[in-house]
Specification:
Its main location: membrane. It is a multi-pass membrane protein. The chain contains 12 helices and no strands. By secondary structure, the protein is mainly α. It has one domain (2-239). 33% of the residues are buried.
C-alpha cells in the first residue's frame, strides 16, 4: 500500500498535477476571500472564516474528482493495470494506496490556509476568534475531502476515460452533498420525514461538525460513506 501511495505522489508532483491542484485551490480562495468586493472578509466586519469553509466545499466538489479521475481509468487505458495485478498486492492495498495519495495532496493544499486563521486572529478587533468553530470546520473539511476522494476513486474505476470519470465523480459528489437537502425541502416530505432525509446528505453532517462540536454520529456517518465507496472501488477492481 505504501509503495502504491509513494508512486502516486511521485506522479502527482513529478508532473504538474499536484502543483496545479494546490495553486488553483489557494488562488481561487485568495481571490474570493481577499480581492472580490462582495466576498472580501476584510469588509465583512466579523472575525470569521465561514466564507472560506463554504467556498472550499464547492471547490472540492470539482477539484477532488479532477485529481482522482486518472487513478484507475488511466491504468485501464494504458494497460498498466495488468502489470499492477502481477505485483504482490491485494485489491485493498491498491485502492487504499491510491486513495491516501489523493487525500495527501488535498491535505497539503489545506496547510497554507492556516495562514487565514492567524491573519483573522491578528486583525480581530475583539482580540480573538471562534477557535472551536474553526477547528470543527477544519475537521469537517478534512472529512469532506476524504468522502469526495472515496467517491471519486470509485468513479475512476468505472471507466477507462478520465474525462467521463471526472464528470461522473463531480456529479456524484454534488448529488450526495446537496441532493438530499434539496429533496427534504419538497412539500411531500413536510413533517418528520424531511429531517431524516436531510440527515442522509453530506451537507447536514458537514454543517453539524462545523459548529465546533464533533458528534460521534457525524464521524460514524463519514467513515461509513468512505468505507462504502472504497469497498465499491475494490469490487470494481475484482471484476476487472
Amino acid at each position: 500500500m505504501i509503495s502504491i501511495a509513494k508512486k502516486e505522489l511521485h506522479q502527482f508532483f513529478n508532473g504538474l498535477t499536484g502543483y496545479i491542484t494546490i495553486i488553483l485551490f489557494l488562488v481561487v480562495n485568495g481571490i474570493y476571500l481577499f480581492v472580490l468586493k462582495d466576498s472580501n472578509i476584510f469588509d465583512f466586519g466579523y472575525a470569521t472564516l465561514d466564507k472560506f469553509f463554504n467556498l472550499a466545499s464547492w471547490i472540492f466538489i470539482f477539484l477532488i474528482p479532477a485529481l482522482a479521475m486518472r487513478s484507475f481509468s488511466e491504468e485501464y487505458k494504458t494497460g498498466t493495470f495488468e502489470i499492477l495485478q502481477t505485483r504482490p498486492l491485494t485489491k485493498w492495498q491498491i485502492v487504499l494506496g491510491k486513495y491516501f495519495a489523493v487525500l495527501s495532496v488535498i491535505l497539503i493544499a489545506l496547510l497554507p490556509t492556516l495562514l487565514y486563521v492567524f491573519t483573522i486572529h491578528a486583525l480581530s478587533a475583539a482580540g480573538g476568534i471562534d477557535t472551536g468553530g474553526i477547528t470543527g470546520s477544519y475537521i469537517g473539511l478534512i472529512f469532506l475531502a476524504a468522502v469526495f476522494a472515496a467517491i471519486s476513486m470509485w468513479c475512476s474505476g468505472l471507466t477507462s476515460n478520465a474525462v467521463i470519470a471526472f464528470l461522473i465523480g463531480a456529479f456524484a459528489c454534488l448529488i450526495l452533498y446537496f441532493g438530499f437537502n434539496s429533496i427534504s425541502k419538497l412539500p411531500v416530505f413536510s413533517g418528520n420525514a424531511d429531517y431524516y432525509i436531510e440527515m442522509l446528505g453530506i451537507d447536514f453532517h458537514y454543517r453539524s461538525i462545523s459548529r465546533g462540536v464533533v458528534d460521534s454520529r457525524d464521524v460514524i456517518y463519514f467513515l461509513s460513506i468512505i468505507f462504502l465507496f472504497l469497498f465499491a472501488a475494490q469490487k470494481n477492481l475484482s471484476k476487472k
